[in-house]
Amino acid sequence: MPDIVNMTALEQSEAIASKRLSARELMQATLAQISKLNPSVNAIVSLRDEAELLAEAEAADNAESTGWLHGIPLAVKDLANAKGLPTTMGSPIHKDDIAEKDDLVVSRMRTAGALIIGKTNTPEAGLGSHTFNTVFGATSNPYDTSLSAGGSSGGAAAALAARMLSVADGSDMMGSLRNPAAWNNVYGFRPTFGRVPSEPKGDSFLHQLATLGPMARNPRDLAALLDTQSGLDPRQPHGADMTPTLPSINAPVKGRRIGWLGDWGGAFPMEAGLLAHSETAIAQLEALGMHVEQVAPPFSSEAIWDSWTTLRSWQVGAGLSAFYDNPAQRRQLKTEAIWEIERGLSYSAMEVHRASVIRSEWFQACARLFEQYDALILPSTQLYPFPKDWVYPTEIAGQQMDTYHRWMQVVTPIGLLGLPCINIPVDIGANGLPAGLQVFGPRNADGALMQIGKAWHEAYKHSDHAPAGV
To answer: Is the predicted pLDDT of residue 110 greater than 90, yes or no?
Structure first.
């Protein structure tokens, strides 16, 4: 049997089902890998007691399977509730909060047999694509532990790259399933909005920027976890096509039409070498029989940015205003959170409406593009992983960043519309660091994107190139 921690999640699942591997053996291997690497990576937080976890694994060995995740260790992103575990959200305000019940997506994974071992690290309130906070500290990139793992699902991505987990959950508002996946040489998937419902807290109609989703080291595991997380929630008004993605993942991709958006006509500054690194992957896609064409900027990048920042601040302000209104808690909020809240609280209804009209116009323009192309592609990031002691990059290629998140502008055209998107790893660059591509499609194209990802992985297997020492 191959090294247990290097097995895919579906391989682990099949081995447990056939009794070639026990859940206890898998748990022991997982905890040993965490003990070895987590002190330098800091991806797993709030890890449960070893004896309790081994007892749960033994119980799984003596129980009937409840799903494909039966006996597989899983750590939940520290923005979601897992019963009995802290939900700190990376904030000192919540460092002592213990979840009384599972969130819906956690319940679905647990029902499928997952053994919840702890949490994965995230930036405070999930804000900023760089995982650090005052509760647990910074998460390091396993390919160079002096650098950032990205975020906000940085703990999940780093744990996957370091073989501490075989699959992981995450969430994505501004690239949080895509940026860390790119920087950790793994796959991340942002589903069509409504496919994987979040908890119905507060407003359920207006805010459509963020979604939950899966991460993995290969598209088959990614599809399996997406199918587990997916499903309508009768308490919420939004939905999407729930057709499972794993059964159709082997569909051929030859002949598919792909539009390459590059740096959006120079609108998105790129660190030296990154665009060329991405373009080598474009040639590899063509080698798989897909037809790739350069696409001129289809919409104003600044209009998208204006719409995005307005709607994002409005959503963040609505979600965090209760802490801002409490003077003691406000003092514990990071600067970027206060900036978002104050902007969100300042908008009039008509300003929000104007931002949504821009979003609607971009959606229509994008729909016209999808009449010509099966998928569109952008780089997943605008730079390589930066030093983990930075708060955020202040310039790219000589261009100053005017906000804490402008350096991730490349993810906003997709997130603004709630479109499905897969990050595919493009392997290690000349500088020894990973990068990725965002491959996105129209609403409900989740399965078609998984097929592209699977064909890509079978041909190139970039994510099999583990960090040194792993």
So the answer is: yes
Residues 278, 275: Cα–Cα separation, whole Å: 5
| CA atoms of 253 and 141, how far apart (whole Å) | 32
CB burial readout 143-176, b (16+ within 10 A) else e: bbbebbbbbbbbbbbbbbbbbbbbbbbbbbbbbb
From the CB of residue 458, how many other CB atoms can be counted at a distance below 10 Å? 13
- Cβ atoms within 10 A of the Cβ of 356, count? 17
Percentage of residues in the chain having pLDDT higher than 90 = 99
The per-residue pLDDT for 2 is: 65
Q: The pTM is what?
A: 0.98
| 3-state SS track over 394-411 | CEECCEECCCCCHHHHHH
Tokens at residue 126, please? 């999930």
- Cα gap 377→381, rounded to integer Å: 12
| Cβ proximity of 105 and 229 under 8 Å | yes
Whole-number Å distance between alpha carbons of 161 and 468: 11
Question: Whose CA is closest to 419, among 366, 358, 381?
Answer: 366
Q: Find, among 296, 304, 418, 432, the residue nearest to 357 by Cα.
A: 304
Burial category of 410 from C-beta neighbours within 10 Å (exposed 0-12, middle 13-18, buried 19 and up):
buried
pLDDT, tens digit (0-9, with 9 covering 90-100), for 399-433:
999 999 999 999 999 999 999 999 999 989 989 99
For residues 428 and 369, give the distance between their C-alpha atoms in angstroms, rounded to a whole number: 31
Q: At 248, list the tokens.
A: 């159709």
Q: What is the edge-to-edge ordering of all strands in the sheet holding 167-172?
A: 167-172, 211-216, 187-190, 421-428, 434-440, 375-379, 257-260, 291-294
Q: Which residues contact 380 (CB under 8 A, 6 or more apart)?
A: 175, 178, 179, 181, 182, 410, 411, 423, 435, 436, 437, 438
362 Rama sector, left if φ>0, alpha if ψ -120 to 50, beta otherwise: alpha
Segments in 133-242 forming alpha helices (H): 154-161, 179-183, 219-229
Q: What values do phi and psi take at 163, rounded to 5?
A: 60, 30
Cα 113 from Cα 70, distance rounded (Å): 4
Tokens, residue 413: 């055209």
Distance CA 427, CA 443 (A): 28
Tokens of 80: 């979601």
**CA–CA distance, 452 with 437 (Å, rounded to integer):** 12
Hey, which bits of 261-397 come out as E strands? Answer: 291-294, 375-379, 395-396
**What are the beta bridge partners of residue 120?**
44, 77
SS3 212: strand
Measured distance between the N- and C-terminal CA atoms of the chain, rounded to whole angstroms: 18
